[in-house]
Amino acid sequence: MTGAFGLVVRFIVTAGHESAFDELAAETVREIATNEPGTLVYACHRVEGAPRQRTFYELYRDRTAFEVHESQPHVRRFLTERTPLLDDVVVERLDLTAAAGIGTS
Question: I need a labelling partner for 78 at 20 to 30 A (CA). Which of 20, 85, 86, 97 fits?
Fold first, then answer.
């Protein structure tokens, strides 16, 4: 997994828009699963005890796979359509150092 690249993205969804955000995320995940072999993990989470917070964990084969991901029409749509649904977004970029369970053996 040398060279794998990841993100943790934290969203605060505007009150009343949680379902719309979750639907948009689910549609995007379906497209990622179908069209992005370099995206190893794209997981969307609700945060226990924080009903407006969502956390995404994303893992890409390498930075090139991430760049391919960012150029996809479904990702561009997600980035555009999420904006009016959110109060805040925080992105952390990650360089993988060790992992299990993702084809690392």
Answer: 97
DSSP per residue, the chain: -TT-EEEEEEEEEPTT-HHHHHHHHHHHHHHHHHH-TTEEEEEEEEETTEEEEEEEEEEESSHHHHHHHHHSHHHHHHHHHHGGGEEEEEEEEEE----SSSS--
> How does DSSP assign 47-58, residue by residue?
ETTEEEEEEEEE
The partner residues of 7 in beta bridges, in order of sequence, read 58, 93
The structure tokens 């990622």 sit at 32
pTM of the model: 0.91
8 A C-beta contact, residue 57 and residue 39: no
Tokens of 27: 């549609």
In sequence order, the β-bridge partners of residue 77 are none
